[in-house]
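Structure tokens please, single chain.
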Amino acid sequence: MQVVFRTPFFQPIEGEDRETNPGVYGKALARWLVDALAARGVTAHDVIPEDFGWAVMVSHEPCLLWFGCGNVDGSTDTWTIFPVAEPSVLQRLFHRVDIDAEAGRLEAHLRALVPGIPQVAEVVWR
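Here you go.
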């Protein structure tokens, strides 16, 4: 699942695409997400540049939990956020974590936060 939306609120930070890929932004969105999660009692442990944009790391237990975020197709006003619950190899083999439940918790936070994004419009859940 992911959400795509438009807002002029998040603007590229000069030079951030040297950490990701040319024309790939989302650091301002990631920083906003860290603060918004904190307001809900969820601590983000790190913000990491990735090829697609930025990963907001939430937890390593019971599995790797994070949000990916970035701009869409080089746009500076169309953005996406997607939650990820990623089990380890051993967890995959032995099914020790309910990945759907963990992903559902991340999704619930995302659904609560998106309406509060400044100037958000054209929200599409996929």
